Amino acid sequence: MKTLKIEDLHVQIDGKEILKGVNLTVNTGEIHAIMGPNGTGKSTLSQTIMGHPAYQITQGTIKLDGQDLSEMSVDERARAGLFLAMQYPAEIQGITNFEFMRSAVNARRADDDQVDVMTFMKELEEKRNFLSMNAEMASRYLNEGFSGGEKKRNEILQMLMIKPAIAILDEIDSGLDIDALKVVSKGVNSMRSADFATLMITHYQRLLDYIVPDYVHVMMGGKIVKTGGPDLAERLEGEGYAALRDELGLDITLTDEDVPVV
Fold first, then answer.
1. I need a surface site. Which of 4, 50, 73, 176 has the fewest CB within 10 A?
2. Continuous H helices in 34-94
3. Which of 42, 51, 67, 40 is nearest to 201 (CA)?
4. 143 neighbors 90 (Cβ within 8 angstroms)
5. pLDDT above 60 for 256
6. How many CB atoms lie within 10 A of CB 13?
7. Can you give the pTM of this predicted structure?
C-alpha cells in the first residue's frame, strides 16, 4: 500500500497565498474526488503535489510513504508512483505518442528490465482499442492537433500504460461529450484495485455517476472544509456551494460561475 499524506499545506504563487492549510490522506485502494468553487485551489493542489516550480510551499508537508516530496524532483515523484493527468495537456512537436509513452514506462523500470518494442506495441494496441482511439494516434506527435476529447483520452491512455500507484486527474472530464466521458470513466475504473488510488478534481456530478468515489472532499477558501461520501456531491448538485458555506459559517464570496453543473 502507498500513502499520500498532506498536512497543513500552505502554498503561494507570485506572492499570493492560494492553499491555506490543506489536510488530506489518500491510500491505494481508494477513490477520492475534490470539488469546490472556482479559484479555491484545486488545480494548485495537483500542481504542487507533482512539483510545479511556480508553486511555493510556505508551510506544511506532502509525503509519499513518509518521504517528503519537497526533496524529490518531478521525475522522481513520477518514478515513485505519482501521475498527473493535466487539465490542459500540452502539444509537443517532434515526439510521437509511442516514443513518449515507451520512454515514460521504461523510465520507471530498471536498466535490465526495459520493455521491448514489440511487447510495448502489443499492449499499447490493446489499451488504445479499449479506449476507442484511432490507430494513427501512436505515430502522431504528442497531442498535436488532437481535439480536447482526444487529449483527455490520451492522458488516460498514458495512465493505463504507465500504471501509477496514485493518479491525480485534474478535470479530466471537462469539455467531454457523454460518449467520451463514458470511455474516460471506463479507463479509470479499469485501474481500480488495492494497488491504485485516484484523486479526481472535478466540477461535475456526472463524472461521479460513472466513477463512484469512496470520499468526496469540498474545498473552499484554500482548504478542505467538508468530507463525505458520494451523497455529499449529490447534495452540492441540489443545494450549491452557498448552502454549505453558510452552514459552516465561512466568510467566502462565491460567483455565478460557482454553481455546480448538473
1. 73
2. 42-50, 74-79
3. 42
4. yes
5. no
6. 15
7. 0.91
